Amino acid sequence: MKRTATADEGRTLRVLAACRISNDDDSSSSIERQREKLKDWLHANPHCTLVRVTEDRSVSGAIDLKDRPELGPWLADDKRDEWDVVWVSTQDRLGRDDLHFMAFVKDLLDWQKGIYVYDDPSFEVSTETGRLIAYAKATQAAAELTRIRKRALDSRDYLRRKGLWAGGNLPFGYKPLSVVIDGKVHYKLTQDREYAQLLREVAQRIEGGESLANIARDLNDRKVMTWQDYLRTLPGPEGREPKGAKGLKWHPSTIGRQFRKLSCVGQIEYVDKATGKTRVAELDNGDPVMFTDGPILTLAEREAVLGKIDERASKPQRARRSVARLSGIARCGPCGQRMTINRVTHNLKSGPTTYERYRCASTTTARQCAEPAYIEKSTLDDIVDDFLLAELGDKEEVRTIRTKGEDHTAELEQYRSRLARVEKEDEQGWYDDDRESYLMKRRNILARVKELEAKPVIPATVTYEPTGRTFRQRWEGMTIEEQREYLLAHNVVIGAWRLGAVHKDRSAFVWLGDFVEAARAMGLVASTATDTEWGFRRWNVTEQQEEAAQRLIKEAMPDGAELPF
User: Fold this and answer.
1) What confidence tens digit (pLDDT) does each residue in 480-525 have?
2) Which pLDDT band holds residue 160 (cuts at 50, 70, 90)?
3) Does 338 lie in the same domain as 294?
4) Last residue of a domain, which of 79, 114, 148?
């Protein structure tokens, strides 16, 4: 096409303008400047009518044109008849992948459409010579994209190995701190005081047995901004106005995810382009690269938190509609599945009446149960209430105080895994041209393994402190939901059967879990051979049900622990 002419005399060209920018913060060739060029061109070409301007922001030139969020739909069958020519400011706005470019040119020729490149009026694809020149330019753009990618990868690798922040989303609880290295300004990460403290608070609450759901609810009630919203309140690059918080809510999975990331212990993770796997960045000596001098948590603290999260993963966290105290806590005696609340309303002459009972979850899931248990809600609630208050009601409640020990197991396993990986990489020939690097890395990792193996393991301690109130006062002062969380946190085990020793009556058992150890440690009950069953009560159970109850209790106890009765 010529710079100031229409395609055919007397026919108006309908123009689809395609604007694109790889990085929306890039001011050198912004969307606004592309629009200015389009305005000038339309003024010089009065016979052209603008149909649509597509703006693909933060879209790489490597993305196929049909896959671009704004331009793509206009290349589909239902939109293709609405335009005659695609307008771009420069050829590389079409893309930096030569194969994508040539496929697009073929499509345009098949559709009998045209392309206009503002900065290259001689651009022509209707002739073989024109296509050859256009393809040569496309290969240059593709080569430039390859160089850009390599420079970006090299830069990120350099920053990663130096423990510097390479940009992107800030990890939870950290803020950038400028440092000058070799005359250039770079950034390390340091703790954001408020959110680093918040992460430590959350870690302590999880270790204390509190659920992620409870913590999320509390943070929302306290109107604590989420990390994403907090970042949106900070000024942008070059003093740009903050984007503003969206009012996002805390969610249990969001909180748990922060401890899955190694950023909470200051380590850098990245995706290995060769394998596609996430790896920990390492120094030549095999040590992990630290992006901060002050990590929020230690490896041992992170492992302890993850252990608690995984432990609770098998426990119920959600109660539907109005809370039923034992929903998801009580177990079906025959199969061991959780029991959930079942509510049925009947319209009687006296008016609507709702019947509530706990029943085996197999009735609503694909899992099978030979004899699904159910028991009236009021019956099981009363059994648990009466037993708890009979055993603990007049006794003083105690607070559990846990003192952290010293355990380098998690760090030791990390270095052993690194050693195994480095040796495997050597077998695969990774170090054939650099034996010295391999030997140094292996030697340093082995030294660290031996150092960690020599460190003592000091077990954590658990002590109990009186709270100054009775258990009855504590129990009766809680809401139903709080009572449910309390039972979960103390690993209380409850089970029920439809029929028991007395055939027409329900049967059940209750074991007080962690309350048993706390009560014995405080001397609230005797630790004698005749009192080994304190905290364990059965109602109308058969001999077979007694054995099933002990199996369910054993499953809830820590690995290696023996039944106390």
Assistant:
1) 888 888 888 888 999 999 988 887 889 999 999 888 877 776 666 6
2) low
3) no
4) 148
Three-state DSSP at 183 gives coil
189: buried, middle or exposed (CB in 10 Å: 19+, 13-18, 0-12)? buried
Tokens of 469: 């109130």
3-state secondary structure (DSSP) of residue 494: strand
Q: Is residue 77 part of a domain?
A: yes
Question: What amino acid is encoded at 125 in this protein?
Answer: V
3-state secondary structure of 19: strand
Q: What is the signed CA dihedral for 513, 514, 520, 522, rounded to 10 degrees? A: -150
Look at the block and give the residue holding tokens 């703006």: 55
Is 125 a domain residue? yes
Work out the average pLDDT over 52-69: 86
**Mean pLDDT within 301-317:** 76
Q: Determine contact, residues 89/34, Cβ cutoff 8 Å.
A: yes
Q: What is the mean pLDDT of residues 83-97?
A: 83
Residue 356 tokens read as 């509530």
Same domain? For 428 and 381 the reply is: no
Residue 7 lies in a domain: no
Q: How many CB atoms lie within 10 A of CB 245?
A: 14
Specify whether 87 is located in the same domain as 189: no
Q: Looking at the structure, tell me whether residues 72 and 195 fall in a common domain.
A: no
**Using a CB cutoff of 8 Å and minimum separation of 24, what contacts does 272-280 make?**
273/153, 280/414
Amino acid 428 reads: Q
Which residue range forms the structural domain that includes residue 27? 13-148
Asked whether residue 398 falls in the same domain as residue 367, the answer is yes
| Listed residues 255, 284, 313: the one ending a domain | 313
Q: What is the mean pLDDT of the chain?
A: 81
| Unique residue bearing structure tokens 């009630």 | 221
> Band of the pLDDT at 5, cuts 50, 70, 90?
very low
d(CA 93, CA 5): 22
Residues 57 and 125 both lie in one domain: yes
**66 and 202 assigned to the same domain:** no
Contact, 95 vs 61, CB < 8 A? yes
pLDDT at 283 over 80: no
**3-state SS assignment for residue 227:** helix
Sign of the C-alpha dihedral, residues 69, 74, 77, 79? positive
How far is the C-alpha of 148 from the C-alpha of 143, rounded, in Å? 9
What is each CA distance from 492 to 250, 488, 511, 526, 556, in whole angstroms? Answer: 28, 6, 6, 20, 9
Q: Based on the structure, what is the number of domains in the chain?
A: 4
pLDDT higher at 267 or 376: 376
